[in-house]
Amino acid sequence: MKQILIDAINKFSKQADYLEIRVEKNEIFVISFIGPALDNISRSTNLGGSVRAMNKGGWGFVSFNNLENLNEKISLAIRQSKLVGKQVLSFPDLNIKDITLKTEIKSDPRKILAKDKKSLFEHYNSLLLEKSDKIQSTQVSYRDEIKTTYFANSFGSYIEQERLDIVGRFNVIARDGGAVKQAFESVTSRDSYEAVLNLDAKVLDTAERALRQLNAKPVKAATYTVVLDPRLTGVFIHEAFGHLSEGDNVYENEKMREVLVVGKEIAVPKLTVVDSALIPNLPGSYVYDDEGVKANKTVLIENGILTNRLHSRETAAKMSELTTGNGRALTTGYSPIPRMTNTYIDKGDVKFDEMISDVKEGIYAIRMLGGQTNGELFTFSSGEAYMIRDGKIAEPVSDVTLSGNVFKTLKDIDAIGDDLIFTSGSCGKCGQNGLPVGVGGPHIRIKDVLVGGR
Hints:
- The protein is an alpha+beta fold.
- 22% of the residues lie in helices and 43% in strands.
- The longest helix has 18 residues, at 114-131.
């Protein structure tokens, strides 16, 4: 593969300002249950690839599922790029030449029999279904994928990377009369099948969360002090701020360019927000991105000050900023665009008991059930919530929807916990849905949050 790609690049490199070829081979195994029924069990092996050519800032892109007639595909991408290029755009040579990276696998899922995987997840599904007669439905799935990516570009780079992803997902819906509640849990690993073993307690807790919410009364709509658990903190910072920090969202939006000025204070002084692909064993971690740029730890907000944003090669060049190694594509069927990796609020120094101790009436919101963002505005629904009364966690409440402006909210954070927890996520953008990411943070306390109920 290496020589095929290098020879092809060398043959055409003088016909484009920039040229790259990316090829992926993957082997995927999937099991899924819906209710008591086995919905799918399959194994597949795929090969895909793409060529990108850039001339005067214009891109040509051609994807393929075999290496036949590769020269024709490169020629087509180059011709496309010359039709749209209208500006001078140059990329730095990052001096990355010949790299081969293998995944260190502690427990290889390919060595586990399909029947044993099926039996394990059938057991987990049964735990959910048998927990209570109020459990109406379940969705349980397992997936493992081993992927090898081959990358070459006109700077003389050749990068070969191997990646393992193991994911177990558990979704449960509980019903009692007209009340319907759901809970979700996922488990991921980048190096070991053992991550999906011995999950009985975690699976049962998922069912119990849904059942607890059946008895919760709707919250009274009002403005509250709200404490977010680390999982909801992570999703909040990813959805409400992380997407705004992606280079294309800044470059293409004049209003965001005016708001997101590097060096501007946009949050409370104690707040630091980071995006890092360097944290071991998280879904968003890698060594080189899909453009052959080395991964980084990028501090987006440091002590309240906006310090960086996330870039692909293109957005970094257009904004005259440094590349950050955030050019990611879901598959070779898509061009890389600026995407988050593992995004989190860094921990502070406040213990949870201290955080709630002086809250007379507030809300403790746990996990996210759903939500949406529109520019700097956000609306999130928590998966589980409790009232805080006189500094203590009190009765469960339901229909907790948090709304606000992200920049106001970043300045309304008045306590940051001393804990830091990462969870797995799945990100969607520009039709590239399901990209593995990590989200994280500590408990945080936010004042004056508009909370909707029924």
